[in-house]
Amino acid sequence: MMKKVGITVICLIVAAVAGYMIFNSLQEDDYYVKIVDEGVAIEEGPEQANHRNYETLGITENGESGTIEFMGMKKLRIGAYLKVKMRDDHAVTYEEVSESDVPADIKTELDNQ
Question: What is the top-level taxon of the source organism (predicted)?
Answer without folding.
Answer: Bacteria
